[in-house]
Structures are given as structure tokens and as C-alpha cells.
Design brief:
InterPro entries: ANF_lig-bd_rcpt, GPCR_3, GPCR_3_9-Cys_dom, GPCR_3_9-Cys_sf, GPCR_3_C, GPCR_3_Ca_sens_rcpt-rel, GPCR_3_CS, GPCR_3_vmron_rcpt_2. It comes from Erpetoichthys calabaricus. It is a single chain. The chain is built from 23 helices and 29 strands. The protein has about 900 residues and is an alpha/beta fold.
């Protein structure tokens, strides 16, 4: 045989023939045969038990013995016969050409499958003489095998001759390698497509934490690796284990312990039922329930779906080969009758197994004493052979035959001069060679009689189409495998996966889909934080920090809000920051406004008193004109504080600082001039000193105007160069926008304050030096005390201003303005008003000059009382200022 094959190889590739004459021993195989113009080969697993012959090497080995015929396998073989018959009856497909077939049983043995492939390549003629290499080979293509391993071996042989091989059940992705298997095609999707379908199912139900098991063979190892690579973009694997093919008790116990300890509720298995059976027995023994099993196509339709296993495996979701109803197939199957042609010996084995009898021609030993007559009725029995409700692998066989037929039809329709071969030649349909069929197989693309497109990609793989099935229990406890969805990768628009969720049976107490996650999803407002040493699917949910948000589920990071926005309490949305400023409507604004208004009223009230009593000694003795200026400037100081309240604008920002600077400079200028007048007046009492006439009323007004003009000039330059402008402060409080006035030029602002401080210091020094000048009502003493209050308030203001947040900064500034203004007002004018209003008997020149001892004592007692009163006011003012600032700082710390 091997020499004969080599001769074939030489002929087909070198295009010459070698005359040979020899007798070859034929393989004894079970098969089906039908003569035709063009022959197709097929290899099917019909019998599931085989006994190898004894190899003594002393005599010719006996043939393999096969038994235990499987009706599903025989149905697949007959489906090929039916497809050939249907094509022959179709006048539009391969007209005037009759297809025939050689079909062999591989008995689930790779060695027998290889023998069958060899027989199909070389033919079954026992004598070959003067063989012409120009004749067509015994078969031009082969349908089969079922398993991936035998398909790999057979395809390597067929590729030597360029013979197409179309498998209907081999799913190993390795067969997609066109370098190693250039002539291999299949009508069942590759395991790569199966893995994609299973991952899509897992994604559909939101399962991100699963375990996978695979058989200890090429199918299992390849599937596990592919699944691990694809699934890592969807979720994480809790475990990845290999199921031993033998009953390895320790390994089985190891796997079951992992399943029990794992929190994964979904387990995917790539294996055949015989490998799963040992594991299933241990699962039943340990009563492991509450798991959702995902079955590969290798066992999704298996006998494991039984009532005995349903308590543990019920609700299994599986991938299954696409099912289709083939019209008239059942009728064709029921027409099969015994044929004693040795080429159709498989029919005899089928008949004897179906009816549990023996034909007399085959054996003298009868089964149960029953003899086959050949007239038995197939309709009387209900078996997997006659059941055409679940045509899955049989449908793939049907598509395989039609794919070969369409390739031959395209070859037949070739026009001379336009062919794909050398010099535009076409192949001869009556002398077609396998490599010519292979060329057309790569271009096959058609709609089969059942309305489904059949085509192959560049790797020879079929379109990825699967049924999604679910193990369910129907009436009277019968187990059924129900189709609940479809995975079709050829869909151009829409999703490849379609599942009817309401049709699925869930084997859980809730009757709902289980939740299989390592960690629950992080809701918007939180982010994922990985756990050290654990898969990425296991994480903690950490709330976003203030000012940051996350808007999607399972966000890996939080995003900071824009500068004018802040996170809401849920940290899932950026909202506009609260705009804050010291307004007239709030309690603090109302309080400060009231105090400022009170200060204005008091100032004008004192002014009214002074104007009314302008002819009295106290008013005249204290330079009434400067007192009027001083009272008006104090009223302006109280008034300017109102510019600090309300929403900042370009007008108010300019006015508040300018009015503040000019008002206080006017006030302190009046006090400074008053102090100078007191000093000059007392110095003028010395005989011959005429300095008082050089500092009269005009000079006093001019001095006040000069000092105020300097401040006004500084303010004008400040406003021209870099004026204060409204600004949004987002740094003091992150959750708020503080509307405030930016001073613009810091130098300008410093000059304004520095000039005020300079005048105040000069005034304080002069008043302090004149405090002991003889007078019952020496105004220098009160000016000294007022300057102490003024400086103390503004020195206490600095740390309070720096440490106060937001609008409280403005409040501190207003408080300082009001406190210092009230300090000046009370320290300067309280003694005078007290004499004018409450002690009018002292409001005379004699009392002022201190010429009456009684009046002098009375005046001194009065001054002592007034000083004590002012000291109390000063103490309360400073204490209130420090307490106010301290309260604000405390509030800020609590808020932060």
C-alpha cells in the first residue's frame, strides 16, 4: 500500500504514468458505497468500541473488530448519502454529473481513520495494471474526520496530494494554520469562535469572576489558553485547572476543593462527557450546588443532561452546533434497507443492532434466537437514528457535501480561455484532480437550500454560528435541552449574541441569574482601588475626594472638577460652586450695616451738638472748625465701611479702598493739626512767642488739605496704574467662590496704608509729648488715648485678617474700620459731650482755666471718671476684636 501511494504522489505531481502490476492486500473496513461520475470520500464514527488484533508477527494480523454501533453516527453518514442524492436530483447543480461516495467507519480509532483515509486515496482495486496518471483519483475530496487529532494526521497526508478535506466536527484552532494544513476546511466553527461566544455570554450576564476547567488533551489545553487570553479584557479567572482523563482521585479532590472554596459562581468547562464524569461523581458526592455551569459544544448536548444529574447540573448554559431541519431527511432515513454488497456492509451492522437480530448469512449464532429478515419496519422504533429534531453535526455534514458540490459546479462552469489555470485553461470535470477542486473550494460562497450562507474565510474556517442552549426540566420531569439564543459572528449590524433571557431556567432558589463577581461594582462617586496580591477584579471602592467626581460605574480614577465647579455630596456630578460674598441680606451684613449707620448717626449727632453749643467755652477751646472736620471725616469713615458690603463690582472695588484711605487720612490729619495747635497754643503763653499767629485757621485748613491731598494723589496713581478689580477667589475655600476685590497693585495699597500709619504714628508721638501740658481739659491726653485705641485695633487686625476665610476677611476689615472709628469718636468727643450735656456748670472759661479750687477738683474728678470710662471702652474694644477674630479662626478650622 505504501509503495502504491508513493506512486500516486509521483504521478499527480510529475504528470506521467508508470506501468505497475502488483497485488495489494486491502483493508477490511465497514462502509457505505454508491457509484458516481465523481466520487467523494467520508469518514464517520459509527461504532464506538474496537478491539485491536493480536500482533504476534508470526502470521498475518486479523482485522480490527468494531462493535456498539451509534445511531447518531450512522445518521450523520446517511445524511451525507442524502445530500449526494439531493444534489443528483437537482438539475441546476452539476447538471449531467452524478456524484458518488465511499464512506468508512473509523470506530473512534485514529489508526482505523488513517486506514480509511489511505483506502479512499488509493482506491479498493486489488489489482492495478498499466495505471494511467491521467485518470481521476478514487475520490476528489473527503468529508471528515470528527476529532481534531485524527483530522490533523489525515490532513497532513491529504495535503501532499492537494486533496480537500472538509471536517464537520474538528474544532482545534491549530487546523486554521494554512501553512501546515493547506487543504483543510471545516463547516463547524473553530474553538476560537466558541471561546468568543462563551465570553459574550458571560459579558451579557455581567459575570466577571469565573473559573475554568479543561480536559487534559490538545482540545482542553488550547481552549483554556484561548479563553484566558480573550477573557482577560472582560474579567478575571478565579481558578484554571486541568481535568485528568483517568480517575485520579487526588487531582479530582483538589479540583472539587477549589470549586467549593472559590467565590466564583460561574464555571466554564472545555471537555467531553467521559472526562467530566469522574469530576461530576465527586461533585455529587460532596453535594456542591449553587454553581452555574457553562458547557462547551463537546458536552452541551450530552447524556449528562439527565434527571439523575439535574439537581447539580440543571440550568447549564451551553454552546451547541447550529441546528437546522433538513426536509425529507427523515423519509430518506426510513427508506434504508439491508444491502449484502460488501461495500455496504455497514448497513448490515446497523440493521442487526437496530432490531437486535442476526442475518443468517453473517453468523450461525443468533442474538436471543432472533433472525433478521430485512423486512423489519424502522418506523416502529424510536431511536437517535430516526430523530431529526436535533440535526447539528448532521447539518454540518450536509453543508460540507454542498460546499464540495458547489466547488465542482464552479469548476464545471469554467469557460475555456478564462480559466484560473495555466494559459487560462479549465479543469476537465470528467477527469478532475483534487488540487483543482481545492482551488475552487477556497472561493466557495453560496446560500444552501435551507437559506443559510456557506463560505470559508482565508483559514478555511466556517462562519461562527452557534446555538445557545439551556438544560431545563419540562412536564413529568423530562429533561430537555432548549435553544434560548444564537451567536452569529457574521451579523453585520447589531450584536452577534442574541439571548432570550426570559426563556432561561436558573437552577437557583431565586430563579434569577446568579451574581459572579469578586467585588461589587463601584458606583459613581467612587473609584476602584486594587487589593495587593489579588486579581484586578478584586478591589475596594474608595470615595472620591472633595472636588473630584466619577460619573461611570467601576471608574478607575476620579476626575477633578473645573475651577468654577465643585463636587456634589454624592461625588458624581460637578455643580457650580456657591458664590459667597458679604451681602446686606445676611445677619452679619445687617449687623455691620447697623453699626455703621449708628456710627454715622452718632457722628452727626455730636456735630449737631457742637454746632448748637458753638458759643460755649468747651467748643471754642477745642478748635470748633477742626472738630467739625473731624466729625465729618469720622462719619465718612463709618460710611466707607458700607462699600465693603455687597457683591464686588468695578465701582465698589475702587471706592472702598479710596474712600477708606482718604477718610482716615482726613480724620488723622485733623487730629494731627489739633495736636500741633495744642502744643503751639501752650508754647505761645510764653511772653514774646508769636508762633500762634503763623498757624492760624488758614494754615490749619491748609495743613489738613495738604495731608489729605497726598493720600488722594497716591489713590489716583493707584487707580491709574493698577486699580482694584473684582476677582473670584477659589483657593480660600475649595467648595466656594469668594467674590472679593483684588487690590491690583500691592505697592499702591501698601502706600495707602503706610501713609495712614505714618500720620497716626506722628500724631501719637506729638500727642504723647503734649499730654502733661497744664489744662483741665487737655485734649492731647484724649488724642493720645485715641491713637492708642486706633493703633491697637489695626495691629490686632493684621493676624485676624490673614487667618480669616472667605467673606469673614471682609468682615474683619469692616470691624476694624468701625472699631477704630468708634475709638476715635468716643475718646475725643465723649468728655466734651459729657461736659456740654451733663455738666453745663463746668462749660465756662473759669472751669477750663482751673481758677476755682472746687471747680478744679470737680473737673479733675470728672476727667478721672471719663478716663476710667474710656479705658473700659478701650479694653472692651480690643477684647471684642481679639475675640471676634478668634471666633472666626475657630469657625474656619471647624469648617476645614
Amino acid at each position: 500500500k505504501r509503495f502504491f501511494l508513493y506512486t500516486y504522489y509521483s504521478c499527480w505531481n510529475e504528470h506521467y504514468w508508470v506501468p505497475l502490476t502488483f497485488v495489494s492486500k486491502l483493508f477490511s473496513l465497514y462502509g457505505l458505497y454508491k457509484k458516481g461520475d465523481i466520487m467523494l470520500g467520508g469518514i464517520f464514527p459509527v461504532q464506538y468500541f474496537s478491539v485491536p488484533p493480536e500482533l504476534s508477527f508470526r502470521s498475518k494480523p486479523d482485522k480490527w473488530k468494531c462493535d456498539n454501533l451509534d445511531f447518531s453516527g450512522f445518521q450523520s453518514a446517511q445524511t451525507m448519502a442524502y445530500a449526494v442524492d439531493e444534489i443528483n436530483r437537482n438539475v441546476s447543480l452539476l447538471p449531467n454529473i452524478t456524484l458518488g461516495y465511499w464512506l468508512y467507519d473509523n470506530c473512534i480509532r485514529m489508526s482505523i481513520g488513517l486506514r480509511a483515509a489511505t483506502a479512499l486515496i488509493s482506491g479498493q482495486e486489488s489489482v492495478v495494471s498499466d495505471y494511467s496518471c491521467n485518470q481521476a483519483p478514487p475520490v476528489v475530496a473527503l468529508v471528515g474526520d470528527t476529532g481534531s487529532s485524527p483530522s490533523i494526521a489525515i490532513s497532513r497526508i491529504l495535503s501532499l496530494f492537494g486533496m480537500p478535506m472538509v471536517s464537520y466536527f474538528a474544532t482545534c484552532p491549530c487546523l486554521s494554520n494554512k501553512v501546515e494544513f493547506p487543504s483543510f476546511f471545516r463547516t463547524i466553527p473553530s474553538d476560537d469562535f466558541q471561546v468568543k461566544a462563551m465570553v459574550e455570554i458571560i459579558k451579557h450576564f455581567g459575570w466577571t469572576w469565573v473559573g475554568i476547567l479543561g480536559s487534559d488533551d490538545e482540545y482542553g489545553h488550547t481552549a483554556l489558553k484561548t479563553f484566558s487570553d480573550v477573557f482577560q479584557t472582560v474579567g478575571c479567572l478565579s481558578f484554571n485547572e486541568i481535568i485528568p482523563q483517568a480517575n485520579d482521585k487526588l487531582k479530582i479532590l483538589h479540583i472539587t476543593n477549589i470549586i467549593k472554596q472559590s467565590t466564583a459562581k460561574v464555571i466554564v468547562i472545555f471537555a467531553v462527557s467521559r472526562d467530566i464524569s469522574f469530576l461530576l461523581n465527586e461533585i455529587i458526592l460532596q453535594n456542591i450546588t449553587g454553581r452555574q455551569w457553562i458547557a462547551s459544544e463537546a458536552w452541551s448536548l450530552d447524556s449528562l443532561a439527565s434527571e439523575e444529574n439535574f439537581y447539580w447540573l440543571g440550568g447549564t448554559i451551553g454552546i451547541a452546533i447550529r441546528r437546522k431541519d433538513i426536509p425529507n431527511l427523515e423519509k430518506f432515513l426510513l427508506q434504508v434497507r439491508p444491502d449484502f454488497d460488501p461495500a455496504n456492509n455497514l448497513v448490515i451492522r446497523f440493521w442487526e443492532t437496530m432490531f437486535e437480530c442476526k442475518f443468517p448469512e453473517n453468523s450461525s449464532t443468533l442474538i436471543n434466537g432472533k433472525t433478521c429478515t430485512g423486512s423489519e419496519d424502522l418506523k416502529s422504533l424510536s431511536t437517535a437514528y430516526t430523530d431529526t429534531s436535533q440535526l447539528r453535526s448532521a447539518y454540518n455534514v450536509y453543508k460540507s457535501v454542498y460546499a464540495l458540490a458547489h466547488a465542482l459546479h464552479d469548476l464545471m462552469m469554467c469557460k475555456k480561455g478564462e480559466g484560473p489555470f495555466e494559459n487560462g485553461s479549465c479543469a476537465d470535470i470528467f477527469n478532475v484532480q483534487p488540487w483543482q477542486v481545492l482551488f475552487y473550494m477556497r472561493k466557495v460562497n453560496f446560500i444552501n437550500p435551507l437559506g443559510e450562507r456557506v463560505a470559508f474565510d482565508k483559514n478555511g474556517d466556517a462562519l461562527g454560528i452557534y446555538d445557545i442552549v439551556n438544560w431545563q426540566k419540562i412536564n413529568q420531569g423530562k429533561i430537555t435541552i432548549k435553544t434560548v439564543g444564537v451567536y452569529d459572528e457574521s451579523v453585520i449590524t447589531g450584536k452577534a449574541l442574541t439571548i432570550q433571557d426570559n426563556e432561561i431556567f436558573w437552577n437557583f432558589p431565586s430563579k434569577l441569574a446568579p451574581e459572579s463577581i469578586c467585588s461589587k461594582s463601584c458606583q459613581p462617586g467612587t473609584r476602584k482601588a486594587s487589593r495587593k496580591g489579588e486579581p484586578v477584579c478584586c478591589f475596594d471602592c474608595v470615595p472620591c475626594a472633595e472636588g473630584e467626581i466619577s460619573t461611570v460605574v467601576d471608574s478607575s480614577e476620579c476626575f477633578r472638577c473645573p475651577s468654577d465647579f465643585w463636587s456634589n455630596p454624592g461625588r458624581n456630578q460637578c455643580v457650580e460652586k456657591e458664590v459667597e460674598f458679604l451681602s446686606f441680606e445676611e445677619s452679619m451684613g445687617i449687623t455691620l450695616t447697623t453699626i455703621a449707620a449708628l456710627g454715622i448717626c452718632v457722628s452727626f449727632s455730636v456735630l449737631a451738638v457742637f454746632i448748637h453749643f458753638r458759643e460755649t467755652a468747651v467748643v471754642k477751646a477745642n478748635n470748633s472748625e477742626l472738630s467739625y472736620f473731624l466729625l465729618v471725616s469720622l462719619a465718612l469713615c463709618f460710611l466707607c465701611s458700607l462699600f465693603f458690603i455687597g457683591e464686588p463690582s468695578h465701582v465698589t472695588c475702587r471706592l472702598r479702598h479710596v474712600a477708606f484711605g482718604i477718610s482716615f487720612v482726613l480724620c488723622i490729619s485733623c487730629l494731627l493739626v489739633k495736636t500741633v495747635v495744642v502744643i503751639i497754643a501752650f508754647k505761645a503763653t510764653v511772653p514774646g512767642n508769636n508762633r500762634i499767629k503763623w498757624f492760624g485757621a488758614v494754615q490749619q485748613r491748609g495743613t489738613v488739605f495738604f495731608f489729605t491731598s497726598v493720600e488722594t494723589l497716591i489713590c489716583i496713581l493707584w487707580l491709574v496704574i493698577s486699580p482694584p478689580v473684582p476677582a473670584k477667589n477659589t483657593n480660600s475655600e475649595h467648595s466656594k467662590i469668594i467674590l472679593e476685590c483684588n487690590v491690583g497693585s500691592v505697592t499702591g495699597f501698601a502706600c495707602v496704608l503706610g501713609y495712614i500709619f505714618f500720620l497716626a504714628c506722628v500724631c501719637f508721638v506729638l500727642a504723647f509729648l503734649a499730654r502733661n501740658l497744664p489744662d483741665s481739659f487737655n485734649e492731647a491726653k484724649f488724642i493720645t488715648f485715641s491713637m492708642i485705641i486706633f493703633l491697637a485695633v489695626w495691629i490686632a487686625f493684621i493676624p485676624a485678617y490673614v487667618s480669616s476665610p472667605g467673606k469673614y476677611t471682609i468682615a474683619v476689615e469692616i470691624f476694624a474700620i468701625l472699631a477704630s472709628s468708634f475709638g476715635l469718636l468716643m475718646a475725643i468727643f465723649t468728655p466734651k459731650c459729657y461736659i456740654i450735656l451733663l455738666k453745663p456748670e463746668l462749660n465756662n472759661k473759669r472751669s477750663l482755666m482751673g481758677r476755682s479750687t472746687n471747680n478744679k477738683n470737680t473737673a479733675q474728678n470728672t476727667l478721672f471718671s471719663i478716663k476710667l470710662f474710656l479705658i473700659c471702652i478701650f479694653h472692651n474694644t480690643v477684647t471684642t476684636s481679639v475675640s471676634f477674630c478668634g471666633n472666626i479662626s475657630t469657625k474656619r478650622k471647624k469648617k476645614l
